[in-house]
Automatic annotation (TrEMBL):
The lineage of its organism: Bacteria, Bacillati, Actinomycetota, Actinomycetes, Mycobacteriales. PANTHER family: SYNAPTIC VESICLE GLYCOPROTEIN 2 (PTHR23511). InterPro entries: MFS_dom, MFS_sugar_transport-like, MFS_trans_sf, Sugar_transporter_CS. This is MFS transporter. SUPFAM superfamilies: MFS general substrate transporter. It is a multi-pass membrane protein. The chain crosses the membrane at residues 21-44, 56-77, 84-103, 143-161, 173-195, 251-275, 287-308, 315-333, 339-362, 374-394, 400-420.
């Protein structure tokens, strides 16, 4: 039986709810920044006479920045703590966003988008580590999984803001679009001020008195570092991470994360082209693209309701299997009636939600406090490489191989994720962080895991 602990089994307090909202600001800004450039690019291309290569570099620079920033942010938060960096990265996002308003020339825009991406990417391991180390075990999965949902909220907000500015701001509309990310970043930054440091991180650095001060502030009198579950002594640094017993866990997370995001990023980025190739054109393609975006969000919300009821492992496997079958049918029958095509795309968008939310749950649960940020950052960076390659190859595949083969490849990647999950996915539902992260602990099987409802 899992032992009761005043921190792991604490009720969901106002502090936890506020921290969840403030922490999810990073994914919101990620979705906003990556989407707003697509709207702005229409006007920028005309004014600056951009080549296809220049457009591609501007669009890709943010993704490259996220790749770099995620690992750097993870290393920095493990070394210097979560608290300071939790607001410092937002300051960088604000500065880069405002600077874009005054930019002149392609090179400087690429540089600023790169720096913006680095700041956004750095926030992922910082915010998720902090949220993980405060969240009660009963709510940890849903709270971390909600981060992905906020990505789609940010993307939707960007399209609305972009459309409004395009109609009202004249020739400088694109400047206002790119600078507009500063407003939500300022609000999130102000809200984050005063967030306490993780007591688990403080203890890992020997700062016991400060850890007790944080515990008193958050949980009230009577809770001290003695109530923190003892973590297994790992002495694992960043360099030793892949050579330690955590190497297999890193391989699992990187592979399943990549298998999840490669088809999704490709479908999301090229939905109009893909739907057009499947004989849905004009308004039908635009409506279909918007509907798919909404359904991705719906899928994440459904998965949040299931992550504790089903458990991590079953949810991940089912998500890959059934979404992969939807893509497989699209590949086998690309000439099916439009209604069938939309149903299959809708099924994929909803069913892939399980693997999406677990991208932030598993990495934070499977690594100890001293390397949690680094592990999350490294996994995020490695998965972005696959996503970037997959997104780059989609238009080439559509042109040279056709829509049917393209969908079959996407199905193969997704179903490979199911195989990896069947082989390596542990069940961490109901475990404390010390239990799920310790190499000496065996994670529970789905059959033995305690049932928890939210």
């Amino acid at each position: 039986m899992t032992t009761t602990n005043p921190l792991d089994d604490a009720p969901l307090s106002t502090f936890h709810k506020k921290l969840a909202v403030f922490s999810s600001g990073g994914p919101f800004l990620d979705g906003y920044a990556l989407s707003i450039i697509g709207v702005a690019m229409v006007q920028i291309s005309g004014q600056w006479n951009l080549s296809s290569a220049e457009q591609g570099l501007i669009a890709a620079s943010t993704l490259i920045g996220i790749l770099l920033g995620a690992f750097a942010g993870g290393w920095l938060t493990d070394r210097f703590g979560r608290e300071v960096l939790f607001t410092l990265d937002l300051v960088a996002i604000i500065a880069c966003s405002v600077a874009q308003f005054f930019v002149e020339g392609v090179v400087w825009l690429i540089v600023l988008r790169l720096l913006l991406g680095m700041a956004v990417g750095a926030d992922y391991p910082i915010a998720t580590s902090l949220m993980t180390e405060f969240a009660p075990r009963k709510y940890r999965g849903p709270l971390l999984g909600a981060f992905v949902t906020m990505w789609f909220v940010g993307a939707a907000a960007a399209y609305v803001v972009g459309e409004v500015l395009a109609r009202t701001a004249g020739d400088d509309a694109w400047r206002w679009m790119l600078a507009s990310a500063a407003l939500p970043a300022v609000l999130i930054c102000v809200a984050r001020v005063g967030t306490p440091e993780s007591p688990r991180w403080l203890v890992s650095k020997g700062k016991i008195d400060k850890a007790n001060e944080v515990l008193l502030k958050v949980y009230g009198p009577g809770v001290t570092v003695a109530d923190l579950p003892a973590e297994e002594e790992t002495n694992v640094g960043v360099k030793e991470l892949l050579r330690s017993g955590y190497g297999k866990r890193m391989a699992f997370i990187t592979l399943f994360w990549t298998c999840s995001v490669v088809p999704l990023f490709a479908v999301y980025a090229f939905a109009p082209a893909i739907l057009g190739a499947l004989k849905l054109e004009g308004d039908a393609a635009h409506i279909g693209s918007a509907a798919i975006t909404i359904l991705f969000m719906v899928g994440c919300i459904v998965a949040l309701l299931l992550v504790n009821r089903m458990g991590r492992r079953p949810l991940l496997i089912h998500s890959f299997v059934w979404s992969g079958l939807a893509l497989l049918l699209l590949g086998l029958f690309p000439g099916a009636p439009s209604a069938i095509i939309m149903v299959l795309f809708a099924a994929y968008a909803v069913l892939i939600g399980g693997s999406q939310i677990l991208q932030w749950v598993y990495p934070n649960e499977l690594f100890p406090t001293e390397v949690r940020g680094s592990a999350v950052g490294l996994a995020s960076s490695l998965s972005r490489i696959g996503a970037a390659i997959g997104t780059f190859l989609v238009p080439l595949s559509l042109t040279s191989l056709g829509i049917g083969v393209t969908m079959l490849i996407a199905a193969g990647v997704t179903l490979f994720g199911a195989v990896i999950s069947q082989m390596w996915a542990p069940e961490t539902r109901g475990l404390s962080l010390s239990e799920s992260a310790g190499l000496g602990q065996t994670t529970k099987s789905p059959a033995s895991a305690e049932t928890i409802s939210v």
